[in-house]
Design brief:
Blueprint lengths: L2 H6 L17 H4 L2 H10 L12 H5 L5 H4 L4 H13 L25 H7 L23 H12 L4 H14 L13 H12 L1 H15 L3 H28 L12 H4 L5 E3 L36 H6 L4 E5 L6 H13 L7 E6 L2 H5 L5 E2 L1 H8 L15 E6 L24 E2 H10 L7 E6 L14 E5 L4 H11 L3 H13 L1 H6 L3 H17 L6 H23 L3 H14 L4 E2 L1 H6 L4 H7 L3 E9 L2 E8 L2 H19 L14 H18 L6 H9 L3 H6 L1 H4 L6 H17 L4 H11 L5
Parallel strand pairs: 2-7, 2-8, 3-5, 5-7
Antiparallel strand pairs: 1-8, 4-6, 9-11, 10-11
The structure holds adenosine-5'-triphosphate.
């Protein structure tokens, strides 16, 4: 193994238990040499301890296999480490001269060194407590790395001395002279002969008590302790992230659901505006946006980090595109040792959790320990060779805006400060500059972070075409059913287009799986969108709705008026016109988003729009429907009649919508009509009762509307297919 690599490459999990050393107190100071004499004196009666003697050394040493931890976290490392243990070159011993701040005070001459340690005349004993269990974090690979890294810090003559002492002191382990061995061979031999715990124990004893290399010994102890903490942290993260959080009742394993996502470098992509009927021309992809899909290993890829000086990565994406899932995948891959093992501590700090601490005054280390109590065992996160990474998911959810200009400078980890000050300074890089920072957010909140603090901007775009299909194949265990679901989705263009949004895929899977399994006719398009709306409402909109019960009516009105003009983007002044706040629609409701449009040369303009044009169609239909049901107003009727009977009114509303579409030169309202008719359906009205109350469309009105649509079918044969879909929305069950 290359020495440099061994110091910096943590590509497999470390694993060593400081417990192997016993306590850090007096007991530790008790040198093996002391034991050697006393143990021999008490050899006869000391039966409680296991003993090893010279004869024992002749027997084959415990193999590496038997030393391997059987914990999943370490297993992968161990299978690899056997290969790594073979040296690639013989440069190991040359590193002995590398400098260290604290070396043994006097450099004894070789003869003195030999004199210093009397040749043992008796067989020494090393006391091993049989009850002492090895920490599962202790792996061969870790022990190898940590021993090698400690010995590399000794000067050449001290390394010689170390070998000499080892040989003198522990003849029960080392029968042959060790003087010819370099670091790699020595560590290899130690591990092979003594095992993991004993190798570390004797190394520490020799360093601390015989050679007085306090600095190196403490470093060794520190690395062992941190490695245990890392192990515990991984356990906690596995527990927190291994299930899909949206489904706590079902305990769905994340790995059973998670499908690869399409995300790119750049962050200038236009919003997906593919539409079955409408032509959305204004959304041209920014020329500078990059379409090359990235994979998780491209995030904080060590080569890019170095080449592009990346410290802070920001990932943006419209609501439901899968940012949190991407983060969860990254975390679990780290926990399971699948990627990013150069990161020593991975500490997710979700903004949702940080909201619970708003206004609190704590030190940064306390804040970390509050979320991850196992971190109490380490008093600092700044130590050489151990990369730390923070992941702050969902900046848009953070209750306190991050203000880089107004927030005080802070870099002390141990002094208490307001949590917002700590987080702002962490993102800014004032605290733990060398730590990696990954922040994810819906687009609008990204503006809080100044450009100079963003070293890489990524954009999550949801699922590509192949990924959509892969999602259904992965999540539906019945293969044949999965294919039927995919075939159905492909048969409905709008459904297929909208499945670019992973959140929508989840809705579609749940509904279609049930319907197709039971042989029922699948739900109309309206129900999928209504469920999506409810997911958004339940996620964050409850408070907004209690403050502004008319929010969706107003947003729908804006959607409708823009649809009349065939416009999908939302000009800034429109928000005021409809008495809305862009943040409510973009951040809270998650039904609108933002993107950047190149207007003139280098100038970029921020543009608001709906998350997808079909969502605009749905909201426009919702507006017409809510206006009618709640305010008895048919907004499609230009004559502005009042006082109609509900049955007549229902029929008139649908008739006027059908006429509007059939008489229109554009296809702008085609999907709108499908949604409006779908909203008359009973299940959808039940779902919408949170906005609608308990009003119901009379069966009679629906039947009459169906008769009218069928009549139109005959009059407009060229629109047969389309009108048939309208009928399917109106009567999703066989009629
Ligand atoms: N990679 C994926 N594989 C499978 N399902 C996914 C994936 N990504 C997202 N989903 C589905 O979409 C839902 C929303 O995803 P997620 O919460 O990650 O989106 P988000 O972009 O973080 O949204 P928001 O901006 O609302 O926080 C998930 O709960 C899950 O059902």
């Amino acid at each position: 193994m290359d020495d440099e690599d061994a110091m910096s490459d943590n590509s497999v999990p470390f694993g060593y238990g400081a417990s192997a050393f016993g306590s850090e107190g007096e007991e530790e100071e008790e040198d093996v040499a002391v034991h050697r004499e006393s143990a021999l004196r008490h050899m006869e009666w000391e039966t409680a301890v296991e003993s090893y003697d010279v004869e024992r050394a002749a027997s084959p040493a415990p193999s590496y296999d038997s030393m391997c931890s059987d914990d999943g976290i370490g297993a992968q490392a161990e299978s690899r480490c056997k290969i790594q243990l073979y040296r690639k070159d013989s440069s190991g011993s040359s590193c002995c001269s590398s400098s260290s701040d604290e070396k043994p005070n006097e450099e004894p001459k070789e003869e003195e060194m030999i004199q210093e340690i009397p040749t043992p005349s008796l067989k020494p004993k090393l006391l091993i407590d049989p009850n002492e269990t090895r920490h599962p974090a202790l792996t061969v690979d870790f022990a190898f790395k940590v021993l090698q890294s400690s010995l590399k810090q000794l000067r050449e003559e001290h390394f010689k001395r170390f070998k000499r002492i080892l040989w003198e002191r522990y003849p029960e382990y080392f029968r042959d002279q060790l003087s010819s061995l370099d670091i790699i061979d020595l560590v290899d031999k130690m591990l092979e002969i003594c095992g993991l715990d004993v190798s570390l124990k004797i190394t520490l004893n020799v360093l601390l008590n015989d050679m007085k290399c306090k600095y190196v010994a403490e470093q060794l102890q520190g690395m062992c302790k941190r490695n245990e903490v890392r192990y515990e942290l991984k356990k906690t993260l596995r527990r927190l992230y291994e299930h899909v959080s949206e489904d706590p009742s079902q305990q769905t394993l994340f790995e059973d659901v998670c499908t690869d996502l399409y995300f790119t470098d750049g962050g200038n992509a236009a919003v997906n505006s593919e539409h079955e009927y409408r032509q959305i021309q204004e959304l041209q992809e920014d020329a500078r946006s990059k379409n090359n899909p990235l994979s998780l290993t491209d995030i904080f890829n060590p080569k890019d980090v170095e080449r592009r000086h990346i410290r802070t990565v920001i990932t943006k994406g419209s609501p439901g595109t899968g940012k949190s899932f991407l983060v969860q995948k990254f975390i679990l891959d780290w926990v399971e040792g699948r990627s990013h093992q150069d990161i020593f501590f991975l500490l997710p700090l979700p903004f949702r959790e940080l909201n619970q601490m708003t206004g609190e005054t704590v030190s940064f280390m306390d804040l970390i320990c509050k979320l991850y109590p196992e971190m109490k065992e380490v008093d600092t996160l700044e130590f050489e060779g151990c990369q730390v990474m923070f992941i702050c998911d969902g900046l848009d959810e953070y209750a306190t805006p991050v203000n880089f200009r107004r927030t005080a400078y802070w870099c002390d980890h141990n002094e208490p400060a307001n949590t917002n000050v700590l987080i702002t300074n962490l993102i800014r890089g004032n605290m733990l500059y060398s730590a990696y920072m990954w922040v994810t957010s819906r687009p609008v909140a990204i503006n809080q972070i100044p450009a100079e603090c963003i070293h890489q901007l990524l954009e999550v775009r949801g699922f590509s075409h192949e990924q959509r299909e892969a999602y259904f194949r992965k999540t539906i265990s019945d293969k044949e059913l999965a294919e039927r679901v995919i075939a159905y989705i492909k048969s409905c263009k709008t459904l297929y287009i909208m499945c670019y949004l992973p959140m929508f895929c989840t809705v579609v899977r749940r509904l279609l799986e049930k319907d197709l399994q039971s042989g029922e006719r699948p739900k109309g398009l309206t129900q999928f969108y209504t469920k999506l709306l409810l997911l958004h409402i339940n996620k964050r909109c409850q408070k907004l709705l209690s403050q502004d019960p008319e929010f969706f009516l107003k947003l729908g009105n804006m959607a409708f008026q823009l649809l009349e003009k065939g416009v999908f983007t939302i000009e800034k002044d429109l928000w005021d016109k409809y008495v809305l706040r862009a943040e409510d629609a973009v951040v809270t409701a998650g039904l609108c988003t933002q993107f950047y449009r190149e207007t003139f040369m280098m100038y970029q303009e921020k543009v608001d729009c709906f998350i997808h044009p079909t969502v605009q169609d749905y909201l426009a239909a919702l507006y017409v429907f809510l206006s009618f049901k709640k305010h008895k107003k048919n907004v499609l009727d230009s004559t502005k009649k009042k006082g109609f009977s509900v049955f007549k009114g229902d029929l008139e509303l649908y008739k006027s919508a059908v006429d509007k579409v059939l008489h229109s030169k554009s296809s702008n309202f085609d999907l709108f009509l499908q949604f409006l008719l779908g909203m008359s359906e009973e299940t959808n009205q039940e779902l919408l009762s949170i906005l609608l109350g308990h009003t119901r469309t009379k069966q009679e009105a629906r039947e009459e509307t169906a008769i009218y649509v069928k009549k139109m079918l005959r009059e407009y044969p060229e629109r047969k297919e389309y009108l048939q879909r309208c009928l399917d929305e109106l009567c999703p069950h066989p009629h």
